[in-house]
Automatic annotation (TrEMBL):
Name this protein carries in UniProt: Phosphoesterase
Enzyme Commission number(s) from the entry: 3.1.4.-
Family: Belongs to the metallophosphoesterase superfamily. YfcE family.
GO molecular function, one term: metal ion binding
All residue ranges annotated as the Calcineurin-like phosphoesterase domain in the record: 1-148
Gene3D superfamilies in UniProt: 3.60.21.10
Source species, domain of life: Bacteria
Cofactor(s) required, per the database record: a divalent metal cation
Keywords, alphabetical: Metal-binding
PANTHER family in the cross-refs: VACUOLAR SORTING PROTEIN VPS29
Amino acid sequence: MRVVALSDTHAPRRWRSCPPRVAEHVRGADVILHAGDVCVPSVIDELAAYAPVHVVKGNNDGPDLDAPATLELTLDGLRIGMIHDGGPAKGRLPRMRRRFPRADLVVFGHSHIPLDESDGDLRIFNPGSPTDRRRQPHGTLGLLTIEDGTLTRAEIVPVT
């Protein structure tokens, strides 16, 4: 299963329509995960034209975005938690384990800083932002490959 992870698209200020380098990756995806700060629901509609989208609400998302604050789902046998997560970087792995005790992977956003970290039992993954790189050298997204309940690939890909 090919999964594209996004976060912090910040439309319409930063995302007027799907950027071509993002479209290259979402085209052919089986699922898209968006970890919040969509800002306008039309982004989800646009992404849904490529693949089914699972989204959580970020701190910049208003009531017009119909999304939960957290989400737990299983994709091809892999248990995934999703949250925007405005908490501190220090202690994030144990905090995510407490929040998602059965998850194998947690996809989160907020910081715009790409991160792929594991403690052996839990992997946490922030795809960064494809449109608002802040202090990062590039805008980024995440590519995940899931096979029979196992995350076989997790990659942060520059798109700017």
